[in-house]
Design brief:
The complex is a heterodimer of chains A (about 170) and B (about 260).
Chain A (H helix, E strand, L loop, with lengths): L2 H26 L10 H6 L8 E7 L5 E4 L5 E8 L4 E7 L11 E8 L5 E9 L7 H9 L21 H4 L2
Parallel strand pairs in A: 4-6
Antiparallel strand pairs in A: 1-3, 1-5, 2-3, 3-4, 5-6
Chain B lengths: L7 H9 L2 H33 L13 H28 L2 H32 L8 H20 L5 H15 L2 H11 L19 H50 L1
Helix pairs in contact in B: 2-8, 3-4, 3-6, 3-8, 4-5, 4-6, 4-8, 5-6, 5-7
The chains are: A alpha+beta (about 170), B mainly alpha (about 260).
Chain lengths: ~170, ~260
């Protein structure tokens, strides 16, 4: 065995060891690496009372109610859903531009009385789909997609769509 | 020599590893690479910043993507190149791989910093925050520290060979971060979106936005390679100069003493 080959084998062995160690560590910390928890997670295992955590999911269609709070700040209530369960959320303050029904959100706060989530911060979480406004309009007009109800249909159906030809 | 047992492709690699030949070939290639890169960049920027449509929900802000995404790809692709160079450096002890790795890391640190900065500028108007500690953002920050650490470590020793070896070991240990960066958005829930382009089904980007993105990615990649080649050439010549100076100093010392 030449020295080069020996060095190569040592390197491979170290690589396998390091990779295994990392994989084991990541598996062990799986639950601590989540940035937010879904409504189903919260209902299955309620976090300790008074502890801050992040709740994430989609803004449920038809659940957004805006008002002005007693302090003059905009006040909004909505429900965050993951398709199976939903949790009501209250928030006072300025929402990000992308906030709308059907949009992904990540909210930071704690559970209040009656399992209402009192949010201190609301962040918008957009999906991985990008399309010109005309294409989105064409999909909506054709009845293929309602943005308030979630993500657009599979991308292969629209990512080559020419709105000038299909749109009316 | 092992050239009789090594496969043909390896022999060709050894051929290119000759610093003199590398300087000759890269000198011929460099102007073409630079020209093609700048031409693509001009085309990509005009296409991306003016001619392409806005996004239906993100509006004009989506144009940050034409810089952010190529920088992210280069930060990871460049690190992959650093890993390959480090293996060559540790196993075959090619001085050219040492020099290339040493010169690559500041460029890699720069593109990773640009990826983080443009991402932050994008996150503020869209997500509503400059920064969050989710798995994707944190792992890219670790990638940035790895690049900076490699650049510092390879330059921290008086003996450049020793610095190169330490840098190569750091780069290989840091390689575990690469799949974490790539798959963080799939393994854990993050604020950052999942992959739009590099996924198994059709790209989630309409072609009117996807094509300018790909042109910009090609443009920045060509510029990256041209920059890395130019820096490696400079590093090689610096090393030659140093060797000549050392030889001259030794000669002077012999004659003086």
């Amino acid at each position: 065995m030449t020295r080069k080959r020996r060095r190569l084998y040592i390197l491979l062995l170290c690589g396998i060891g390091l990779g295994t160690a990392t994989a084991l560590t990541l598996t062990a910390f799986q639950d601590n690496l989540v940035f937010f928890r879904s409504p189903s997670d919260i209902l299955a295992e309620a976090p300790p009372p008074g502890r801050d955590f992040r709740l994430g999911g989609l803004v449920e269609a038809g659940s957004v109610q805006r008002s002005t709070g007693p302090d003059g700040r905009p006040h909004v209530t909505f429900r965050v859903t993951d398709g199976q369960h939903s949790i009501p959320v209250q928030f006072s303050g300025v929402l990000p531009d992308l906030f709308r029904e059907g949009q992904g959100v990540v909210t930071l706060g704690r559970l209040g009385p009656g399992n209402v989530f009192l949010a201190r911060e609301v962040l918008a979480r957009h999906d991985e789909n990008y399309m010109p406004p005309e294409v989105a309009d064409a999909l909506r007009r054709a009845g293929h997609w309602d943005p308030a109800r979630g993500d657009p249909p599979p991308a292969s159906g629209w990512n080559r769509l020419d709105p000038r030809r299909s749109g009316g | 020599m092992s050239s009789t047992t090594a496969p043909r492709g390896m022999a060709r690699l050894h051929l290119l590893a000759n610093p003199g030949r590398f300087l000759r070939v890269s000198g011929l290639l460099l102007p073409w690479l630079t020209g093609a890169g700048l031409l693509c960049l001009a085309l990509g920027m005009v296409w991306g910043l003016w001619l392409s449509p806005p996004d239906w929900q993100q509006g004009e802000t989506v144009r940050i993507m034409y810089v952010h995404v190529p920088m992210a790809w280069l930060a990871m692709g460049g690190y992959l190149a650093l890993v390959v160079l480090s293996v060559i450096s540790l196993v075959w002890r090619h001085p050219l791989a040492d020099v290339a790795a040493r010169e690559l890391s500041p460029i890699g640190a720069m593109v990773t910093a640009l990826c983080l900065a443009t991402g932050s500028l994008w996150g503020r108007p869209m997500w509503g925050t400059w920064w969050v500690w989710d798995a994707r953002l944190t792992s890219v920050l670790v990638l940035f520290f790895l690049w900076v650490g490699h650049a510092a470590l390879t330059r921290a020793f008086d003996d450049p060979d020793r610095g190169a070896r330490m840098g190569a070991i750091l780069a290989l240990i840091g390689a575990v971060n690469l799949p974490i960066v790539k798959f963080s958005v799939d393994w854990w829930n993050t604020l950052h979106q999942p992959a739009s382009v590099t996924r198994l089904d059709a790209p989630g980007i309409h072609v009117d936005i996807l094509y300018p993105l790909l042109v910009n990615a090609l443009a920045f990649s060509l510029c990256f390679v041209a920059l890395a080649l130019a820096a490696t050439r400079a590093g090689l010549q610096e090393r030659r100069l140093r060797a000549l100076q050392m030889a001259a100093a030794r000669r002077a010392e012999r004659e003086g003493g």
